[in-house]
Amino acid sequence: MNRFRVLANMAHTPQEGRNLYAKLTKVTDRFLDVALQYVGAVPYDESVRKAVQKQRAVYEAYPRSKCSLAIKAIAQKSTPGRCRRIRAATWNSSSNAWFTAADTPA
């Protein structure tokens, strides 16, 4: 497996997401035999912090948040015609665990 899709997280602007991808690409081009594809950026959103505190996936806890809507749009763009369900997860750094929502209809 040497092809990866990159999704920038907690980007304050779309340009910040593209800049992060550019930096990552410079490193991988130099040191790794991989191909990266930029698929988009998930905006910084306070609802993520709130969802982590509730130990729930942001998509489940705040389905209309900026973050959730961006995730849904990127998933639909990345898998046209095949995106029927979105599986969302949030990382809880205090417990070092992923919290995953049940499959959610798109």
Polypeptide structure, described:
It is built from four helices and six strands, in the order E-H-E-H-H-H-E-E-E-E. The strands form three sheets. Strands 1-2 form a two-stranded parallel ribbon. It is α+β, with helices and mostly antiparallel strands and 106 residues long. The chain starts with a strand and ends with a strand. The chain has helices at 14-31, 46-54, 58-61, 66-78, and strands spanning 3-11, 35-43, 85-86, 89-92, 97-100, 104-105. The relative contact order is 0.16. Residues 86-106 have low confidence and may be disordered. It has two domains: 1-44; 46-106, no CATH class. Strand 1, helix 1 and strand 2 form a beta-alpha-beta unit. The chain is globular and about 40 Å long. Helices cover 42% and strands 28% of the residues.
Key terms:
alpha+beta, 106 residues, disordered C terminus, two-stranded antiparallel ribbon, 4 helices
Give helix and strand order, one letter per element, not per position: EHEHHHEEEE
Helical region count? Answer: 4
- The helix fraction, in percent, is 40-55%
Amount of beta strand:
25-35%
Any idea what the radius of gyration is?
A: 15 Å
Largest sheet: 2 strands, parallel
The geometry reads as: globular
Averaging pLDDT over every residue, what do you get?
80
What oligomeric state do the depicted chains represent? Answer: single chain
Question: Which strand order spans the largest sheet, edge to edge or round the barrel?
Answer: 1-2
Uncertain parts: 86-106
End-to-end separation: 28 Å
Number of domains: 2
Count the strands?
6
Summing up helix and strand content along with how strands pair, one would put the structural category as alpha+beta
